[in-house]
Amino acid sequence: MFDWRWDFVIEIMPRLLWATVNTLIAAGLGFAIALVLGLLFALAQRTPYRAITIIVREIVEFIRSTPLVLQIFFVFFVGPQFGIRLSPWTSGMIAIGLHYAAYLSEVYRAGIDSVPKGQWEACRALNFSTRYTYFNVVIPQALPASLPGMGNYLIGIFKDTPMLSVIGVAELMHTANALGSETYRFLEPYTMVGVIFLLISLPSAAGIRWFEAWVRRSLGMSR
Amino acid sequence: MNFIEFLAEHSPRLLSGTFVTIQQTVLAILLAVTIATVMGLMRLSRNVLIRGFSTCYIEFFRGTSLLVQLYWIFFVLPLFGVTLEKFVAGFVAVGLNLGAYGAEVVRGAIQSVPRGQYEASLALNMSPATRMRRIILPQAILIMIPPWGNLLIELLKATALVSLISVADLMFQSKQINGSTFLSIEAFGSALIIYYIMARLLITPAMRWFERHTARQMGRA
After folding, report:
1. pLDDT, tens digit, for every residue of A108-121?
2. How far apart are CA A197 and CA B64, in angstroms?
3. What is the DSSP string of chain B?
């Protein structure tokens, strides 16, 4: 039968908390990469060249419909075949960044589509360059509409970071596995990992909802 | 070794892995749809206890990571006297997790059935159960099919995690092939392609067909 040992929990907490920091760093880095790449994916689908649109669209679909854990393995093991050695952290961040960039590109796309047509026409009438139109007129207006989706994917990335444990990134799940195999006690490490995830994801989900409402209010948008 | 030779040598393992992945997916879908329907309806209950229970369930499973839940079910539940076989633990974890996401889809779809439909069935003196079964749910199902399509692809992808408790699914087999041959591009690449085919050529068209079929039945095609 099971016996919950608080002294063991206290003993492993410092290591779990350090791993939590790693998990948060991984989620933050992955999200930052995904934000940039996602915008690129979204813009690449809006060029006048149909071939590029179709190719990028298929790439995005491919990334979105295959498992992240498989992509992590792919990035980690394929590099060495070409003589490129990627550390677990680097390949993990590339995989997570790419995976979520595919999701975020849809968020950006929806945001850009929500900018009224008149804005484009006005930019053309004012003879703005395409680059100026995108970065100074369209994207600033598209961002508020994209915020809810982005927030959800930030939490999504956070919850997907345990997959990095499979290639040996020392995040929460990896540390819990290590603790379990060192001490032959799995109850406390795995349970505490679950508790830590809940304690972070529930408040941040609430925080993101509050932040969205705040952005909408301060931009004078209703809904 | 070229790719054709690779496939000739390793396709039996890839195919057997694909078969296990399909089994896991189908069983997890059955569990997830059941849980989503029950929890989604409970979420709309007037009883605070019932509503609270489903809210806790949904927040718990959506708030923690699937991998954590899978490991917990497989490694920790036996300490409580519930030992699941790895195959069962795999699809149960995936089903429980995606069921929580599905419950929100079910709730949203039911809430987006127009108010007038409730009022009309009240005016026709239908009992709440009949109203739900004959009037609300059929319309809600049509609304929830597209989001379910996305969820089912998420579910298919999520089953790749069961390889980590060594269920011999597609992911597991490609890892094994990679381990014995070191042909990473071929091993992981073909698994990626098979997952893509299952998502784009099986799940997506099936959901489109289901949507058209349901719309026709409702006289909306």
Report:
1. 999 999 899 999 99
2. 5
3. --HHHHHHHHHHHHHHHHHHHHHHHHHHHHHHHHHHHHHHHHHT-SSHHHHHHHHHHHHHHHHS-HHHHHHIIIIIGGGGT----HHHHHHHHHHHHHHHHHHHHHHHHHHTS-HHHHHHHHHTT--HHHIIIIIIHHHHHHHHHHHHHHHHHHHHHHGGGGGGGT---HHHHHHHHHHHH--HHHHHHHHHHHHHHIIIIIIHHHHHHHHHHHHHHTT--
Q: DSSP label at A184?
A: S
Separation in Å, CA A41 to CA A44, A65, A160, B196: 5, 16, 21, 19
Q: Which residues does chain A have within 8 Å of residue B156's beta carbon, measured at their own beta carbons?
A: 65, 67
The percent of residues above 70 in pLDDT, for chain A, comes to 97
What is the predicted pLDDT for the residue at B1? Answer: 63
- B137 to chain A, minimum CA–CA distance in Å? 27
Q: Can you say whether the dihedral through the CA atoms of A144, A148, A152, A155 is positive or negative?
A: positive
pLDDT of A223 above 60: no
Closest-CA distance, A99 to chain B, in angstroms, reads 12
Place of tokens 């719309």: B215
pLDDT in tens, B105-116: 999 999 999 999
Residue B120 tokens read as 């009309």
Q: Which of B75, B157, B178 sits opposite A67 (nearest CB)?
A: B157
Contact assignment for B72 to A77 by CB distance below 8 Å: no
